[in-house]
Amino acid sequence: VLSRSTKEEENLNIKSALWHFIGDLLSSIGVIISAILIYFTGFYFFDPLISIIIAAIIFTGGAKIIRESYLILMEAVPDQFHLDQIREDIRQVEGVEDVHDMHLWAVSTDHYSLTAHVFISEHIQPFCVILAINEMLNKKYGIKHTTIQVEHAMIHDHGSYGKEFLLQKTKTKM
Q1: Alpha helices (H) in 74-158, listed in sequence order
Q2: Domain ranges of the chain
Q3: For 107, which of 32, 50, 62, 111 could close a Cys bridge (C-beta 3.0–4.6 Å)?
Q4: Is the Cβ–Cβ distance between 89 and 99 less than 8 Å?
Q5: Which band of pLDDT confidence, cut at 50, 70 and 90, is reported for residue 29?
Q6: Minimal CA–CA distance to 112: which of 102, 124, 120?
Q7: Distance of CA 50 to the CA centre of its chain
Q8: Of the candidates 149, 150, 126, 146, which has an alpha carbon nearest to the alpha carbon of residue 136?
Q9: Residues 6+ apart with CB under 8 A from 23
């Protein structure tokens, strides 16, 4: 039950508490087992041997929690998201011509934030585009906190990237 709980639980605080409980439980069981083995065999090496095994199990669980915490603190892209797919899904929203400068990170184990710059068509309401992007991200990916910066290529100069985008756009119209 505990092993399944630590694998299925998403909340990092609860995972930490479960691993703490497992560590205490294993320590208690280890003391009892080593006492029984020492009593019947007289071999004292069982005590450090069982302690090392328990420490290895606790270390494994702790290392997983530390890794998850580190990734959250470093604002890494969560493993379950693929930025290229999200970028492509945003491009599929009506009125979106291109997406760049996109960032996605975890604020906690179940709260994600996304920012992106979005080039839009000339003849579309920017608020409609933002609403459509937010709805899609929430429904498809569970991303509820977004900051979408709407841009138009004629207004926002992005150096060679903006020029390249404008050239591609004018070539496709011809």
Answers
A1: 83-91, 126-141
A2: 2-73, 83-173
A3: 111
A4: no
A5: very high
A6: 102
A7: 36
A8: 146
A9: 54, 58, 61
- In the prediction, which pLDDT does 8 show? 61
Q: In the chain, count of helices (H) and strands (E)?
A: 6, 3
Q: What is the per-residue pLDDT for 1?
A: 47
DSSP class of 66: H
Ramachandran bin of 149, using left for φ above 0, alpha for ψ from -120 to 50, beta for the remaining angles: beta
The residue among 90, 113, 119, 114 whose CA lies nearest residue 102 is 114
**Token pair listed for 13:** 């605080």
Closest CA to 24 of 60, 57, 67, 66: 57
The amino acid at residue 35 is: A
Strand residue runs (E) in 32-91: none
Please give the helix or strand (H or E) that residue 42 lies within, else none.
none
Q: Report, at the CATH architecture level, how domain 83-173 is classified.
A: 2-Layer Sandwich (3.30)
Residue 43, both tokens? 């071999």
